[in-house]
Each structure stands twice: as structure tokens, then as C-alpha cells.
Specification:
With 238 residues, the protein is of the alpha/beta class. 36% of the residues lie in helices and 24% in strands. Strand 1 and strand 2 form a beta hairpin. The protein starts with a strand and ends with a helix. Bound molecules: adenosine-5'-triphosphate.
Length: 238
């Protein structure tokens, strides 16, 4: 069974002359164990695709399924539970809760799922140590650098046994060495059975993926293009 699958997915914004077709009939799926990189020029629909895959947005047409469950058929509560349990999401702007420490931010989804505070903290600190910042467990986001906040966001996305990890430019605020370490972590989660989707502008980062898809104007233009084509496609869209 695929972990995530989008079938005939369209997403439009606005109406009439102002209609923007963010996605136009996308078919896309990822089985367990696979990491897929999504590339394409700015505005081509990459974030929209990720938001739909993560249940943060709904398609105008078509279906999105996570582990065989059609997201459109779920109540808000059931969707929130599925997102908490099955989906780890690294947002471009981190989305950390400022009033919670790093460890509390990472532990929150586990606690909401009924894990004891103590066990959730232990699991959260383990996850922070996987991104090299366990010593910052008790620090608040505002007292951290952008790169440190990004690592907390990544620790939160990979904590527990999430089956689907979605990452929107997860290395933007990181130096290249830390960025590589984060991609390695994503890779190892996929090697252990998760499905991963990585939005990136960087062909070197896409090199960590098993497969690269290219979006242009809301459509997948060539799902099998070899990596060297990435730069020329990106250039063409500028
Ligand atoms: N809420 C919205 N309302 C109107 N238009 C939107 C909205 N969200 C996205 N769009 C439009 O949909 C298209 C796809 O946007 P999206 O953010 O998915 O692209 P992207 O490939 O992620 O871009 P970037 O690389 O710059 O992040 C763009 O034309 C964008 O302006």
C-alpha cells in the first residue's frame, strides 16, 4: 500500500479572471521506504502539493489518501488525529510554539496522543539529540538561532513513528554540514519504512532522494528526468 497518494488532484484559488490554478490534475504516490524530491520554479505548486499531502489544505477536485484513508472523508477531529500520528511536517517558517521549550514543542504531539509527560519528554530529547541539539531542550524558540529553530522543527517532524514525513525546504536556515545531517536523518527514516517528500531547490539535496518529480505551472512535467535536468528546468521557469 502507498503511504501517500494524490489522484487527479486540482487546487484552484480565487474565482473568475483571478483564478489561480495552483495544481492541475496531479497524480502522485509514495510507497513506504521511498524519499521523493519535488522540484520546480517558484510558484509551480510545490508547497500546495505538500499542504494537500499533509491534510492542511483540501483539493478542489481529486482525492488525497494517507495509508488508504481518504482525507476528504474525515471529520476535523479525525483528520487532526491522523496528522498527529502519521504525518511529520517541516514547515518553511518552522511553526514552533513560542511559549513552549524545544523539548515541549517536540513532545506536544505525543502528549496529545496520550503519552505520559515523562515518556514524551524522553522521546522528544532523543529526537533533539538526533539533530544534535539535546543541550537546547529547555530553551525557548525566541532564544535560539534560525538554524536551531529549524532543527527543533525537524526533531518534531520525525519524533515517534510517523509514516509520512513532509519537508518544505528543511535546510534553508542551516549551514551545509548541518543541512546534510538533516537530509541523512530524513533518508534513514525512509530507509526504516517511512515515506518522505522533500521540496527543494537544490539539486544536491535532491540527490538524497530515490526519485525526483518536477512541477511546472501546477503539473508534473517529467517524473523520471535524470538529476542534471533539474537546473535547466529551474532556469527555464525563472
Ligand atoms: N492562498 C492562496 N491564494 C491565492 N493564490 C495562491 C494561494 N496559495 C498559493 N497560491 C498560488 O498558487 C501558485 C502555487 O503556489 P505554491 O506556493 O504552491 O508554489 P511553490 O512552488 O511552493 O513556490 P515557492 O517555491 O515560491 O515556495 C502560485 O501562483 C501562488 O501564488
Amino acid at each position: 500500500m502507498t503511504v501517500i497518494s494524490l489522484t487527479g488532484v486540482h487546487r484552484t484559488h480565487g474565482a473568475g479572471d483571478a483564478t489561480v490554478h495552483a495544481l492541475r490534475g496531479v497524480d502522485f504516490s509514495v510507497p513506504p521506504g521511498e524519499l521523493v524530491a519535488v522540484m520546480g520554479p517558484s510558484g509551480s505548486g510545490k508547497s500546495t502539493l505538500l499542504n494537500l499531502a499533509g491534510g492542511l489544505d483540501s483539493p478542489t477536485r481529486g482525492t488525497v489518501e494517507v495509508e488508504g484513508v481518504v482525507l476528504g472523508g474525515l471529520s476535523r477531529r479525525a483528520l487532526a488525529r491522523l496528522r498527529r500520528r502519521s504525518i511529520g511536517y517541516v514547515f518553511q517558517d518552522f511553526n514552533l510554539i513560542p511559549s513552549l521549550t524545544a523539548a515541549e514543542n517536540v513532545a506536544l504531539p505525543l502528549e496529545l496522543d496520550g503519552m505520559s509527560v515523562r515518556k514524551a519528554r524522553g522521546t522528544a530529547v532523543e529526537s533533539l539529540s538526533e539533530v544534535g541539539i539535546e543541550d537546547l531542550a529547555d530553551r525557548f524558540p525566541d532564544d535560539m538561532s534560525g538554524g536551531q529553530q529549524q532543527r527543533v522543527a525537524i526533531a518534531r517532524a520525525v519524533v515517534g513513528r510517523r509514516r509520512l514525513i513532509l519537508a518544505d525546504e528543511p535546510t534553508g536556515a542551516l549551514d551545509s554540514q548541518t543541512g546534510e545531517a538533516v537530509l541523512k536523518l530524513l533518508r534513514s527514516r525512509c530507509d526504516n519504512g517511512a515515506a518522505g517528500v522533500l521540496v527543494t531547490h537544490d539539486a544536491r539535496h535532491a540527490g538524497w532522494a530515490d526519485r525526483v518529480i518536477f512541477l511546472r505551472d501546477g503539473s508534473i512535467v517529467d517524473a523520471s528526468a535524470p538529476l542534471p535536468d533539474a537546473d535547466s528546468l529551474l532556469e527555464a521557469g525563472r
